[in-house]
Amino acid sequence: LGAAALSVAGRRRRRCATAASCLKEDYKAQLKAERKRQNWQQLYEHRQEMKRQEIEQQLQRERDARQSRIEWVRQRSRVVDLEWREEQRQVDERLESWPLARLLSQGLAVVGLCARRSGTFFGDPIIFLCRPDGADLPRHEFQR
Q: pTM of the entire structure?
């Protein structure tokens, strides 16, 4: 307040007729400078508040989008779990009720195999399956 108001007041002092009028003009200049400073301060605070609100809105949109993705994954996981359980139920039912010949023809069972260990994969054994006579295996689901 001081430097800006005094420089304004100093320029006006030359036009003053009396000391009282100079004091009055100095007071008016100080009030004007103070109002101007307050206006700038209010404008600055308003802009800061607008920026803060904009950032908060953006964060809320990001939270909402993330929550939507999480909910989508949960919903899809439930569907995949249901499908998996149904497939497991069908396989169990087939293994219990179908004759061996049908399981063989559908590629769900392979009998008369030999197994040999062929190393490890991250600590788990790798098993190689083959026919006792060395011929290729018939088509089966394990080839996929």
A: 0.42
